[in-house]
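Input/output pair, single chain:
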Amino acid sequence: MDMAREAAKKHPKRLHTLGPLIHNPQAVDYLENLGVKVKGRIEDVPGGTVIFRSHGVSLQDLTKARKRKLRIIDATCPMVKRAQRFAKFLHRHGYALLIVGDADHPEVEAIRSYVDEKVHVVSSVESVKQLGPWEKLGVIAQTTQSSSLFKEIVASILEQSKEVRVFNTICQATTLRQREAIDIARKVDCMVVVGGYNSGNTRRLASICKEVQPRTYHIERAGDLRPRWLARSGRVGLTAGASTPHWIIEEVEGEIRRLKDSKS
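Output:
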């Protein structure tokens, strides 16, 4: 976000992102007001400067951007780049690649583009069992995947493969956030998870919390809160996805306090 704001000052009206910079509609709207336009395809960028989003871009889009001589600002998350490097390493050394993640997520699509064959994407233990066995298999994860699911899938793979190489590419900040969210959810009567409905890591966070506290609600903004959710709640927990701006979290916290105070 800081990179985009600074770029908007230097390149007004000539700045675009390839896809939403992060999966948060309010943040995208904020950048739009600064003149940062979203384009779905590299071919739609009219020229000037293009920002590569945090999820990374495909090798094909990178090649097209360079051929068109677009000025590139690479905002790809370092953890995503790390996953891309491991994917290329495994492919180069003859391993079939298995990615634990969501097949249609931009990050996974970008990683797959660097490995042109023998790639499988799975999101459950059941789907793994349908694919094996393997002679040589390399395993990585979408950076915002659940660490517990990753471990379960790796354990299943070991049972049906002769040689397995595993790189834990889950972002440690994501793992820590999930652990802290679970700890909070255990102690409260109601859990609120803030983040874009199109954010994979926020949806996963909400799902993890719901396993512990059934009264878990995923919202995008303060206006999505419902008083009835808090009416029977002594303690309310609050957490947010990685791409949720601080100002949205603060607004939600303020609204929770206001609704709680109005009932007291």
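The first strand starts at residue 15 and ends at 18. The mean pLDDT is 90.
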